[in-house]
Predict the 3D structure of the following.
Amino acid sequence: MRRAAAAGRILVGMDREQSSDFSSTGTVVLLHGDSKVSASLALAITVSGMQVLAVVGTVVAALDALAARSPDLFIADLLQPGGNLLWLLNSLRSAGTPRRLQVLVLPTSDDDPRLIEVLRRGADGYYVPGRSASLVAAVHQVLRGESMMTPEIARHVKAHFDSIAPTSPLSLSEPDRRLLRWTAEGFLVNEVARGLKISEHAVGLRMRGIYRKLQFDVRSMGAAIA
């Protein structure tokens, strides 16, 4: 395998392969504190064929909109004050709704320390300009059941699972450990797929599964402390 010359290319191959056969239908609630940015994001999503049910500027308004509209996807700006987004994610995950809401967060960079925390608390993916082909591609990826993982985030996730005993039910399989290691080292998704002898789509699904296990571990630790 060949190491990535630029980490920003890590998901371009997956976006190109999968976007052509993905149905663009889907409903979205968007949370962003900047009205101009949110209008631009909403336009891009709408043009792609999806329906934006609500655009809100606060966590409280987002919670109301999510309860009233039941969208397929919730897109949230990471720059919410005072940990409010973490509170919202905890509220969503404890609600026990029959259909699991997909969550995509918008950080300013993938080395923002808040990003790994929202992934721990239930976010399914994230979009950073330059790290994925476009916001719409990132949205499609999440709705397909996949997740992205840049080297910066992979290193955080790998450190978490490296601290878990191999015999624990929360430990990762050997293929997932290799996926994390190669991603943390900067290999491209198509290179990881070749190394594991699976499709790029399956790599994205495995990344989602790793996040799920990370989130389950965090919830388990919280319950034990309580």
